[in-house]
Specification:
Elements (H helix, E strand, L loop, with lengths): L11 H13 L8 E4 L4 E3 L7 H6 L8 H6 L34 H17 L14 H10 L11 H8 L6 H24 L1
Antiparallel strand pairs: 1-2
Length: about 200
């Protein structure tokens, strides 16, 4: 069971998580939703590990770029964002700012850029920094603070950089860029299939 920090506490984030899991649907690497109660949400045991584990395991057949691109798109049919999962980014996704509790759409999109990067590259930003080593947290924050962003090329390189540079004004702008990339990937796949 996943529950609020305090018994009887705010369930809104868990309710959003429940809705997201319902939208995503079943996948062998995504924990299945078992139900919701007044105390929290019931999830299946994560016997296959996490998505990050899957992407980092070298003996797995990597998911296609199209599959990876589709994992972070959760919208209605008319393109509007349905669910706000609120902010709460860990250090590998943390957008530098004076007040760590002052989150907004740009800090959320910064974190999304890091997530997109990890999904497409198969490793987190700054893979040379090892979690848990002395000063690792500070090193990640310092690189982000100095705008020393990863420059690896992948299908969504310009999207991740725009996220990190806080150039998106809304999630809708990011989705428009993402849809162009999806169309390009599909067109390229169709072209290869007709050859």
């Amino acid at each position: 069971m996943k529950y609020p920090l305090a018994p009887g506490g705010d369930m809104s984030r868990l309710e959003v998580e429940k809705k997201l899991l319902e939208i995503i649907g079943p996948h062998e690497r995504i924990i299945r939703l078992k139900g919701l109660s007044d105390d929290g949400i019931y999830l299946e045991r994560a016997i296959n590990g996490t998505l990050a584990d899957y992407l980092l395991e070298s003996d797995n057949l990597p998911p296609s770029t199209l599959q990876r691109v589709s994992w972070w798109k959760q919208l209605s049919k008319d393109g509007t964002v349905l669910l706000d999962g609120l902010s709460g980014e860990p250090s590998r996704l943390y957008c530098p700012r004076a007040d760590p509790f002052d989150a907004d759409i740009k800090t959320d999109l910064f974190a999304l850029g890091c997530t997109i990067y990890m999904i497409l590259m198969g490793h987190p930003v700054f893979p040379d920094i090892i979690d848990g080593e002395d000063g690792w947290y500070e090193e990640v924050r310092e690189r982000f603070g100095k705008q020393h962003f990863p420059r690896d090329l992948h299908a969504c390189s310009h999207i991740t950089l725009k996220c990190w540079m806080k150039e998106y004004q809304s999630a809708e702008e990011l989705v428009q860029d993402l849809e162009l990339i999806e169309k390009g990937i599909r067109a390229g796949a169709n072209e290869r299939n007709t050859e």
